[in-house]
Amino acid sequence: AGDDTVGTAVERLRAAVADPGPGGLRALVTGEAALDADNDGGDVDGPLLLTSMAIVAVLLLLTYRSPVLWLAPLLAAGLAVMVARG
Question: Model pTM?
Answer without folding.
Answer: 0.48
